[in-house]
Amino acid sequence: MKSDLELYIHIPFCEKKCNYCDFLSFKAGADTQADYVSQLIKELTVMSAQCANYTVSSVFVGGGTPSLLQASQIEDIISAIRRCYDLAEDAEVTIECNPGSVMRHKLAAYKKAGINRLSIGLQSADNAELKLLGRIHSYEEFLKTYQAARMEKFDNINVDLINCIPMQSMTSWRKTLRSVTMLKPEHISIYNMIIEPGTPFYEMKQEGVLMMPSEDEQAEIDEFTRSFMKKSGYERYEFSNWAKPGHACRHNLGYWQGVQYLGFGIGAASYMNGCRWKNTSSIEEYIYAHFEEDGMQAVQGIRREFKELSREEKMEEFMFLGLRCTAGVSEMNFKGRFGVGIADVYGEQLAKYTAMGLMEHEGGRYRLSERGIEVSNIILSDFLLDRN
């Protein structure tokens, strides 16, 4: 029986860098984009020889802004995956879209290519907030994109939102959530704003001119979000992700549950056969790699940070990835994977946080409570094993 495998395709191109973004993305001309897509297809082709014993259960085309590419280029990428890999009939195939760069003819092409899930980057329903974030679209343009997607019969749509952004009020966040949930998307991702080094927002924060919501305001926003999303029929299945029943993102769940995955394109991360690595972040190095001539030697030549995980590191990942999901971690799965009871390794931490009401133990599973999720960074760091 074949094992499941997930594929991530990184498209690094953007029309404009947002003020909060520290992702590997940048503006590039049509020739560079075409060369990059050509290399992606070659990398996919070479790596497929290593995947004969796997069935691809999900594909995620992310960025950057994948919808900046020509529709035919996205079709070529998906076609290469179908040609070279055993793509499951019910595979979840997602593409990220920006309302400022996707037109209806592209959506029709995506549907024809077999893409069955869209992730639309809205971030806010307030145009002043969108401008502050550096987004290139308006809320009205998002609505047109969303309507066009429904007209093309997409029935699995995610909308990305960010809360606790500079100068955001409870009133504006309430308006954003109500506006989006009225549209009834199947999935909503809600991320707390994090000010990352190297971004315009970081520089503004250093200069003292970035007005962020206070801790009390952020707590109020988070509490309202939990209550409102539940009342609106969405289930929280991971810290930042909410879905209608049956519409949790299978690709992301795979990451948190330890499914193996391969990343293609610059900066893309992979996890396979107990090893992790990332591709080079250099667009020049990637475009000039001789995939066609040198095969696996060229593919291995662009890999960086290659690491074979120890048994202890695999245990750590099992815990701090699994505990990000509201379903938590299974005692039976832990013992089946590592041959030892979860309490034998983490008994002290599990007992401590359960006694504090920050974790719950029920039905053979440990999960973070709602209070525990609020301080999850502290809790999860406690599941790192001492390797000295």
Topology (SSEs and partners):
Layout: E1 3-11, H1 30-48, E2 54-63, H2 71-84, E3 87-97, H3 104-113, E4 117-123, H4 127-133, H5 139-151, E5 157-163, H6 170-181, E6 187-192, H7 200-206, H8 215-231, E7 235-238, E8 241-243, H9 250-256, E9 260-264, E10 269-272, E11 275-279, H10 283-287, H11 291-294, H12 296-301, E12 303-308, H13 311-322, E13 329-330, H14 331-338, H15 342-355, E14 359-362, E15 365-368, H16 370-374, H17 376-381
Parallel strand pairs: 1-2, 1-9, 2-3, 3-4, 4-5, 5-6
Antiparallel strand pairs: 6-8, 7-8, 10-11, 11-12, 13-15, 14-15
* Average pLDDT for all residues: 95
Shape: globular
What about the largest sheet? 9 strands, mixed
The helicity comes to 40-55%
Strand content: 15-25%
Please list the strands of the largest sheet in the order they lie side by side: 7-8-6-5-4-3-2-1-9
The total of helices stands at 17
Structure description:
By secondary structure, the chain is an alpha/beta fold. The protein is built from 17 helices and 15 strands. It has helices at 30-48, 71-84, 104-113, 127-133, 139-151, 170-181, 200-206, 215-231, 250-256, 283-287, 291-294, 296-301, 311-322, 331-338, 342-355, 370-374, 376-381, and strands spanning 3-11, 54-63, 87-97, 117-123, 157-163, 187-192, 235-238, 241-243, 260-264, 269-272, 275-279, 303-308, 329-330, 359-362, 365-368. A nine-stranded mixed beta sheet has the order 7-8-6-5-4-3-2-1-9, sandwiched between helices. A three-stranded antiparallel beta sheet has the order 10-11-12. A three-stranded antiparallel beta sheet has the order 13-15-14. Helix 2 packs parallel to helix 3 (104-113) and helix 6 runs parallel beside helix 8. The radius of gyration is 21 Å and the shape is globular. The two termini are 39 Å apart.
